[in-house]
Amino acid sequence: MRDDWTSPRTLVLQAIGIYFSVHGYGPSVRDIARMTGITSTAQVQYVLNALVTEGRITRQRHVARSIRLVEGQA
């Protein structure tokens, strides 16, 4: 996949980094949708799952706001 500044994966990674730096904890799926302009939470979930598979983020199932960037990602 082409990783340019407007790809959904890049936008989501940037949103996670910004949110964590401002708030000190990870964003919710709805926070990410609002920050990126993605209108569907299902699409955000799809992108998050892809980023987990790629090893770019971590998250714990059934734990709210557990989304974290893997060190060196942003």
Total strands: 2
Q: Tell me the number of structural domains.
A: 1
Instruction: Write down the overall geometry.
Output: globular
- The side-by-side strand order for the widest beta sheet comes to 1-2
CATH homologous superfamily grouping: Winged helix-like DNA-binding domain superfamily/Winged helix DNA-binding domain
Task: State the distance separating the first and last CA atoms.
Answer: 17 Å
Q: Given the helix and strand composition, which structural class is it?
A: mainly alpha
Cα gyration radius (Å): 11 Å
- CATH fold field value: Arc Repressor Mutant, subunit A
- Main beta sheet strand tally, sense and closure: 2 strands, antiparallel
The average pLDDT value, as a whole number, equals: 91
The helix fraction, in percent, is 40-55%
Q: Strand portion, in percent?
A: 5-15%
Task: Supply the CATH class.
Answer: Mainly Alpha
In terms of per-residue confidence, which ranges show pLDDT below 50 for 5 or more consecutive residues?
none
Elements, N to C (H/E): HHHEE
* Secondary structure tally, helices: 3
CATH architecture: Orthogonal Bundle
